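Reminder: ligand-aware prediction takes two inputs, not one.
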Amino acid sequence: MNKPIQSFSKLSANEKIKLITQQYFEDPQKAQALLSSYLLSNKSLQEIHSQFSENNLSNFVLPFSIAPNFLINQKTYCLPMVTEESSVVAAASHAAKFWFNRGGFTANVQNMIKKGQIHFTYNGNPNTIKKLFRQHKSALIHSTHEITHNMRMRGGGIQSVELIDNTKTLPNYFQLDIAFITGDAMGANFINTCLETMASTWESIYFQNSSLFPKDQKFEIIMSILSNYNPECTVSVHASCPIENLGLNLKDSERYAQKFVLACQIAVINKFRAVTHNKGILNGIDAVVIATGNDFRAIEASIHSYASKDGSYKSLSNASINRGIFHFEMTVPISIGTVGGVTTLHPMVRWGNELLGWPSAEELMKIIAASGLAQNFAAINSLITTGIQKGHMKMHLNNILNQLGATTHQKQKATNYFQNKKISVKDVETYLTTIDA
Ligand code: MEV
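Here is what comes back for the chain with (R)-mevalonate:
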């Protein structure tokens, strides 16, 4: 077994690079050169990026793109999108343009409540701990007053604290369930700081009142952490138009709308399809979430768990036809922020937020949801008409050509040649051998 690397984080960036490349690469010089070629020439910008993460060696670049023509609540936006998946931005742009001419997207935020929990065990009579909680609930909230001061001034802060008895499902397990409003901040740090403060107050309250409890009774704080499940931080988004405006002749439009509705129903009842259907929605959501400096892992966790809130995993979006009108809608939880952390520090995030007109968190929730619905619309549209590969592979062809080192001339010829053909890496490779570089 290899020896573990000691105190890696204490080494300078150059020492880290040397150690790693010499130990793991056939050609350390070449590996080092690649890392340096991805460093920013602007030293102060590079410094900002290097400080985002521990043990940073270089930058990992993803495309930053724009999807224009998003009409959301009658306001036009160009969306910043960060994604490596070739067809995502093109699909979002097409869907946005399609709906731009049909009234755009309408989005509403239902609520912006985020939850945090203090998990603890207590092996005595549940009624005794419940009584202690009722008597000291305001002291628990009060103990966070300094931390919540600014947030309260902005209309946020702690909304409720409840004690939940889980002892029937896990012996001795209780939790304090705390609801927060965090304004324009995502609020993870704020929530966790409040929770840890409240947990230590709750512990002190218990031990200060220990005379009320028999000696053999045990109380222990297990952990305090926000929850990424946000069923009360949701946004709904909707697009609709008369069937005849779907862009085909009436008969074809009706058939198209029915097929679209069926595609969504399949994703409601079939888990295998639902996961892919929702992944398509997240293609749009994640790209804007990343571009705006938000935590896409939290969003993914939250949205996938919300998709199974009724007991089985389902499509998040739904389509219907009502009196000749085609409706397409979804509701998703989106806990994001537009101030604090990376949103304030990352220059490209600030660029994207300026492009969006410095939205509030509530406005950004609507924008992100519209991006998800547009992406889902584009995917279903392709799936029920031409098939997904046509659009996908057109973009993918470029990646294959780059991967195979094609020249500009070869790229042009290959693009024409494969216009209406199915594409595989092997086919492209074979084709390249038949033309001059
Ligand atoms: C690919 O990234 C996403 C799709 O598979 C979504 C879907 O099938 O709905 C095209």
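The pocket of (R)-mevalonate is lined by residues 85, 276-277, 279-280, 283, 379, 383, 388 (CB under 6 Å). The radius of gyration is 27 Å. We will return to this case in the review session.
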